[in-house]
Amino acid sequence: MKILLTGGAGYIGSHVLVCCLQAGHDVCVLDNFSNSSPEAITRVEALCERKVHVERGDIRDIALLRRILSEGGFDAVLHFAGVKAVGESVAKPLKYYDINVAGSITLAQAMQEAGVYRLVFSSTAAVYGDQSAMPLTETSALGQAASPYGRSKRMVEQVFEDLQMSDPRFGIAILRYFNPVGAHPSGRIGEDPRGEPANLVPYAMQVAVGQREVLSVFGDDYPTSDGTGVRDYIHIMDLAQGHLAALDYLVSTSEYRVWNLGTGRGHSVKEVINCLNEVTGKVLPLRIVERRPGDTAQCWADPSKAVADLDWHATRGLHDMLADHWRWQQQNPDGYGKR
Ligand code: WQD
Fold it and tell me: Which of the residues 11, 57, 161, 329 could staple to 205 if both were Cys, CB 3.0 to 4.6 A apart?
């Protein structure tokens, strides 16, 4: 297939790019490199021994999208381009609605004009909001997402659902990610957060390599087995392969469909830290601090719909995720280098 991959230089996009190239697809990456590095693409090219066509630009640029898509022959769009920092989204909601929502609308307009009707969208478990009943299924009632980031993703889901209802030529897969962790097993590509990492594993990794002093554990008084927050961590390669499964599904059907991509298992912050100590052979310095505003006690997926419909399931466990993430972190302590 010929695929347009928006945000293909980012953490998730670059791993999906590897899977697409290895499956023999012909891929064009569109990225504005606002939070990613062209080096990620260079490394993917080396890993896969294939060249990738790259367009530098913004998904809000309709003229650019028209030009790219009018070159013709695209079978599908995998849409990752967006902003994803939960804390920043509270301070700058307009940025999040502009890039994530308006950008996705512009992309869908250009697709419709060009007659490209297959779309896989990068959504998040954040759309479920604060829920107490676990695991989360795709039909769990959606609470109010805790941040403009989560709400922006939910809005895009709704836009795409309405679009598909109005134009049944569209086949749209919404993938709700749980907590992606890990890296390609080669250690050549991985997550490269800019500034202070907001997420548990990238932060802990920087403590493990000595770039930061201590890991703050946000609360140990949650109603969970050991008092710390529980999440469904999923290996980035499992997550990436889920996109190819969704794409295959859209080959034979034009529908709007939603799938959770998670492992179905929750791990507490303390479990993650213990496993990381094992993987790194170090003992991470910790301090217990207040709960982080907006955090929920627990969140894990029921992934059985993806298993049934897509014949996809996560095969890698927490140890694999952390070992692969650690390899990337050790080999690339400064990520992809200066941007
Ligand atoms: C995991 C657990 C924290 C950092 C967020 C977004 C979600 C998705 C992934 C997508 C929680 C605890 C964390 C730290 C800690 N975003 N923690 N110390 O909050 O589940 O999900 O990232 O792009 O939409 O909401 O992930 O990794 O931040 O936190 O104790 O320094 O680790 O409280 O229990 P989260 P996370």
Answer: 329
